[in-house]
Design a protein that fits this description.
heterodimer; A: 167 residues; alpha/beta; Beta Polymerase, domain 2; 5-stranded mixed β-sheet; two-stranded parallel sheet; 3 helices; B: 403 residues; mainly alpha; Cytochrome-c3 Hydrogenase, chain B; 3-stranded antiparallel β-sheet; 6 strands; globular
């Protein structure tokens, strides 16, 4: 355990994907990369299968919404190399008009429900997913509730405005 | 997975029946629905429907200050709420760079390990009930009550505890809490041993659980399993040992692993984890003796609410109280992932902060949600009665499943 350090990981990734993967930072020791949706499956497969890296464990898939950015929807993967005990985070940002990303269910079976949840809450469409239905909300819901424009409560209430909460 | 013959729809001789197992079936211990296609008593296929108690915690959390999110985490895995509470506090402390005193860490370990015992004790005794041994359940349930009484002394509530604050605890442990804890440590091992004697080498129990729903380590990792059910397959992944938090690295404990990932291995792993938790609590009590007994929170006036009498009598305390409640204190503009070993596995908090008073985005990595997705695929070819036991041993908690 512990043969792989974060510096090694950055070096290996930049050797293989020099301009396709950018390093966003290392908040609290967790390396964060950004890539495009064309490379994501290739990158995840390589990270999982490379003998030195072995990111065999998919911790989580989720998304985030930044309405003011040109690419507002970010899909976030958390990976864990159980062998080396190194974690990594990969982000892919998507345009609002075209929220398609290839599915990771062919790499990890566990991606199935994580992607369904992400679709349910953010409307990210995972191309090639075997069963992309809503999972937590009712089937006939039309909105994607975790997007920022979706109100939490009755928008006419004045006592719960965002500026009371630091925003 | 078992190799029973599975008849397909093309088989002209079979006539399949559809069974709605749930949403409120007494054998499922929660709001779970599975629509099963049955060939006699064998399950041919199943579809899980979840979300019956989805309460949109991630959305609500975006509109709440950090300290008001703790009660939301209570309602994830409500069999071990304190672990969720502590996990959330530690996530915020990591974000804000708060260093907690050692005594706080040890007190937290005591509470978290008590919660783990309460969680595993319910799971294993309910498993015994499902295989026909109701006695053990009533016997150990008394000690969950004893654990809840300790919570009550520390925080005043029992099930949804809201225990602790960002930076430590809301009040110091009193003498009664320690007395109850020592009483528990004295009495519970006897009871746990007796429960073990009832089940561990019981022919009926073994016949019902051994080789039922066996899962390989490869499958378990591919499905992102974590917690006791992953360790039952032989993978020694425990967040407490791999990414120690809350001073777990100072403690001497073992991570039990199973052999073939069946229901019996999961039972054994949970049973052994309870013994290890008792060891941890005893070590923590010894370590506490060397710590000043009046420290129960970190010195972070920016985030830890001052005592009420100080707010009334002390200018600075009043200012801090006002600033905390009104959210006037800037927070770092960054993101953090922190995970703890919950009752069911890796409970992760992914917090994206934009400098405000509430999270920009908060995502809970809920082990029950991720563990449960293998349930329908692994039930194929299983007997219906085995599938019920399998669900008990996965220990899926509806609150954590649906968030």
């Amino acid at each position: 355990m512990g043969k792989l350090t974060n510096e090694d990981l950055v070096k290996k990734i930049s050797e293989k994907y020099s301009d396709q993967v950018t390093l966003l930072g290392e908040p609290f020791g967790l390396l964060t990369f950004e890539t495009g949706r064309d490379q994501i499956i290739d990158l995840l497969t390589w990270l999982k299968n490379d003998a030195a890296l072995q990111f065999i464990y998919l911790t989580d898939i989720t998304a985030i919404h930044y309405p003011e950015l040109p690419k507002p929807i970010g899909v976030i993967y958390h990976l864990h190399s159980l062998v080396n005990n190194v974690r990594g985070r990969i982000k892919v940002f998507l345009e609002d008009a075209d929220v398609h990303i290839p599915t990771a269910t062919n790499i990890w079976n566990g991606a199935n429900w994580m992607e369904r949840e992400t679709y349910d809450l953010f409307g990210v469409i995972f191309d090639g997913h075997p069963d992309l239905r809503r999972i937590l909300n009712v089937d006939d819901m039309t909105a994607f509730p975790m997007r920022k424009e979706f109100p939490l409560e009755d928008p006419n209430r004045v006592d719960k405005k965002d500026y009371f909460f630091g925003r | 997975m078992q190799n029973h013959p599975v008849y397909t729809d093309n088989d002209p001789q079979t006539e399949l029946s559809t069974l709605n197992l749930g949403p409120t079936h007494p054998a499922t211990h929660g709001v779970f629905q599975n629509v099963l296609q049955l060939d006699g008593e064998r399950i041919v296929s199943g579809v899980s429907t979840i979300g019956y108690i989805h309460r949109a915690f991630e959305k609500i959390a975006e509109h709440r200050p950090f300290y008001q999110i703790t009660p939301l985490t209570d309602r994830l895995n409500y069999c071990s709420s304190p672990i969720n509470n502590m996990g959330w506090h530690m996530t915020v402390e990591k974000l804000l760079g708060i260093q907690t005193p050692k005594r706080v860490d040890y007190l937290r370990i005591i509470i978290m390990e008590l919660a783990r015992i309460a969680d595993h004790l319910i799971c294993n005794s309910v498993l015994a009930v499902d295989t026909g041994a109701a006695t053990g359940f009533f016997y150990v349930m008394e000690y969950r009550e004893a654990i809840y009484e300790i919570y009550e002394e520390v925080c005043g509530s029992r099930l949804t505890t809201n225990i602790g604050r960002i930076g430590g605890f809301e009040r110091n442990f009193n003498a009664i809490a320690f007395r109850k804890l020592r009483k528990f440590l004295k009495e519970y091992p006897v009871v746990l041993k007796e429960f073990e004697n009832l089940t561990k080498r019981n022919r009926i129990f073994i016949d019902r659980t051994k080789d039922v729903a066996a899962v390989t380590a490869e499958d378990a990792i591919s499905y992102s399993w974590s917690g006791p059910i992953l360790r039952a397959t032989g993978v020694d992944y425990d967040v407490r040992a791999m990414n120690p938090y809350c001073s777990y690295e100072e403690f001497d404990f073992e991570v039990p692993v199973g052999e073939n990932g069946d229901v019996y291995s999961r039972y054994l792993v949970r049973q052994e984890e309870m013994w290890q938790s008792l060891r941890l609590i005893e070590q923590a009590l010894v370590k506490l003796e060397n710590e000043p007994s009046d420290i129960f929170h970190a010195d972070v006036p920016d985030f830890y609410l001052p005592p009420k009498e100080d707010v009334y009598n002390n200018m600075e305390a009043l200012i801090y109280h006002f600033k905390i409640v009104m959210g006037e204190i800037p927070t770092p503009n960054t993101e953090v992932y922190h995970s703890v070993e919950g009752g069911n596995g890796e409970l992760g908090f992914y917090l994206v902060n934009d400098g405000g008073r509430s999270p920009y985005r908060l995502h809970f990595r809920r082990p029950s949600f991720i563990n449960y997705q293998m349930y329908a695929p692994m039930s194929r070819g299983m007997l219906l009665s085995d599938a019920i036991i399998n669900m008990s041993s996965l220990n899926v908690i509806a609150g954590e499943l649906d968030a």
